[in-house]
Amino acid sequence: MTTSIHDSSVRGFASDNYSGVHPEVLSALTQANGGHQVSYGDDQYTEELGSVVAGHFGEGATIFPVFNGTGANVIALQSLLPRWGAVICAATAHINVDENGAPERMGGMKLLSVPSTDGKLTPELIDMEAWGWGDEHRAQPLAVSLTQSTETGTLYTLEELRAITDHAHSLGMRVHMDGARISNAAAALGVGLGEMATGTGIDILTLGGTKNGIMFGEGIVTLSDGPAESMKYLRKMNMQLASKMRFISAQLLALYGSDLWLTSATHANAMAARLSAAVEATDGVELVYPTQSNGVFAELPNAVADRLRERFRFYDWNRAAGQVRWMCSFDTTEADVDSFVAALSEELAAN
User: For the Aromatic amino acid beta-eliminating lyase/threonine aldolase domain, which residue ranges apply (predicted)?
Assistant: First the structure.
């Protein structure tokens, strides 16, 4: 059967980037398209977005909308570092694995990655690379980057975040949070965005949007003194300054100016929990990591995964180990999950 590219009922589990745009976000884009607005961020939508972000993260918080997540991470980290600075991160971090060297090639910084069994950093893991200050032969570790929720779908508790920021700050380092899925993390923990970031001592974060229902765009949110001063220059230098910024801001405003970020993330998490529970009850497949947000990581025979992939899109996580990743989105339905589980059971039975 040939599937039309316009058939929105066909959903896979490859990535939350595969999902469409939430209708409320599309409506916001349409409304923003009326009339003229001042360019380069001096528009009413960006101004209102700034007030909304301050409401979430505190009066000192400032947002800088950009085109994409890689650009957001690179610029955020650049704002924390001199040219000789280095960033400590988990080996599985998106900046280390999935951004094609952009932090190092475009950002001019050294990444110091450490192994992590669950995608999370700890003060002890940070200390593996937190050394060598004053040694001119070593890139200076001056920042820590963590991801919430992590690339393995796990979550930092508020206590764990505070332990990391306290430790990093005591060593003279600042902390960046990659918040591509920050909404999923906050929804799962039952806390506010500011409680999880400002309240735990994070210095700067990338505020995700595309993985939670907007068409394009992310935000860089500065939470401490220093980064905001250089941000507008770095954004332009890194080709992330939108002339018609209102169209990024209007989307983020639709998402974070209401409870849309929370309801969409909560739904995606619930669908992942439904999938995870069904997988646990299925013989022949095992979970690799605990399902704490909107991602399910499982181990099953590669032959089964390949046949199942003919019916549903998803990616290998570690093919050598027979591990795959299944992601749920704001538009994943219970029927999507149940159909997928039924197909998984069929392929396992045929193996």
Answer: 13-297
